[in-house]
Amino acid sequence: MKHSSPLMMLMLKYISRADAERLEDLLSEMHRFDVRRCLARLEPSTRAECFRLLDSEILSEIISDMDEDDQIEAFSLMTDEKMRDVLNDMPIDDVVDVLGVMNDDEVRDLLPQLEDQEEVSRLMAFALDSAAGLMTTEFISIAESLTVQEAIQVIQHSADDAETIYYIYVVDDENRPVGVLSLRELLAAGWVEPIRDVMKENLVTVEEGVDQEEVAHIIAKYDLLAVPVVNRNGEISGIITVDDIVDVIEEESTEDLFKMAGLIEQREDNDEFRSARLIQSDLGTILRIRLPWLLLALVGGMIAGGVIGAFEEILETIVALAFFIPVIMDMGGNVGTQSSTIFVRGFALGHVDRDRFFPYLFGELKVGLSLGAISGFLVALMAYMWQRNVVLALIVSASMAFTVVLATVIGFAIPWMLAKMNWDPAAGSDPLITTIKDVTGLMIYFSLAGALMQYL
Fold first, then answer.
1. Which among 102, 231, 241, 325 is placed 20 to 30 Å from 295, CA to CA?
2. Residue 130 pairs with which residues in a beta bridge?
3. How far apart are CA 304 and CA 435, in angstroms?
4. Which alpha helices (DSSP H) does 65-130 contain, by range?
């Protein structure tokens, strides 16, 4: 393997010399992204030696920024003692994430060695995609009875152990959040002012069992850098920071895109589905993921081919009809995809209520009628200019308009029906919509042509 980067050359030099001090100095000056990229380019044996040399605190910061697959691989290259030290230096929420993707035997061996075993065990009882699964318990809270000066002293004492100090949460005697203030607001206040007079009381919180996607919506809606998590008694148990939510948004968006294309199975254990599975997995796994919905599309294509075959005589009589088949099908497919994307996106962001579906459907229907009228007129104009046949132009125009309207309705209705059945509305929407739209669109087209054939 070639290592042309100066940083890589230095890293290899210090690793080969077992110069831990200079290696740590180098990595501390590098951006975390560059560190991860350089580590990924090392041979496994060299990477293992690098991990052996590094202090567990520095190594914990590096590993916390890695993807889950890279974290698991990194831990596999460490000794048990090193793994224990690194986990103890990592933020608790990251420890929970790492243990959540390990097998049960590894977790049973590691848990008793963790300094925060009780807290980690409690958090692992929650789903990884819940608020409790995302939150960190390393945050700063202060009593409402303190003065500003006393609060600043608390922050100075606790800042090193907190994941963020941008927000300071104020709690009552029962550890229930009653307010919040930013660090800037705290520093700008008079030292003798009571915290209860400085804090903002309209505090946004989420419960421990709330889904991560809803947490992302709340943070985006209220433009927050962090949101406190409360237990069933209303006591603050942790916070979720915006950097964790960025990962959630990327994960959910990727998952929805794959599901819309039929590239993910409808199972709960696929919430952590990543594109790497479609690139790095064995052939059997890739086929198992991609093939089912494609087989449905294949069946739909065969049915569509059967529809064309049933009207073979019409096509032989008027060859010009064949020219407009792909035009009408492609237009319907594009419109259907647009409608399904609008619904899935709106549903995911909370803009579409599945229990109030018909107002949204009627709104989309109006859009479909407008699109159908415009595209029908344009294709009719093209057909007439080419063949100088008014009836052909009318057939193509009406078929285009009906297909577009139908695709609009199907594109909205199918994701809604999936949502009503408590399935993910993105699951295989595109192949299903394409199949239904192709068959019905062709039947409309050839039925009109057959009815008006004597006038052609």
1. 325
2. 211
3. 8
4. 68-76, 80-89, 92-100, 104-110, 117-124
Alpha helix (H) residue ranges in 311-324 = 312-317, 320-323
Neighbours of 284 (CB within 10 A): 8
Model confidence, pTM: 0.55
Q: Are 248 and 134 in contact (CB under 8 A)?
A: yes
DSSP 151-180: HHHHHHHHGGG-S--SEEEEE-TTS-EEEE
Backbone angles phi, psi at 121, to 5 degrees: -65, -40
Burial of 389 (0-12, 13-18, 19+ CB in 10 A): middle
The tens digit of pLDDT for each residue in 397-434 reads: 999 999 999 889 888 888 888 777 766 565 556 677 77
Cα–Cα distance measured from residue 185 to residue 240, given in angstroms and rounded to the nearest whole number: 21
CA angle in degrees (0–180, nearest 5) for 102-105-106: 50
pLDDT classification of 233: cutoffs 50, 70, 90: very high
DSSP code of residue 207: E
For the chain, list the domains and their CATH numbers.
Answer: 6-125 (1.25.60.10), 141-246 (3.10.580.10), 276-455 (1.10.357.20)
Strand order across the beta sheet in which 167-171 lies: 141-143, 167-171, 177-182
First and final CA of the chain: distance in angstroms? 69
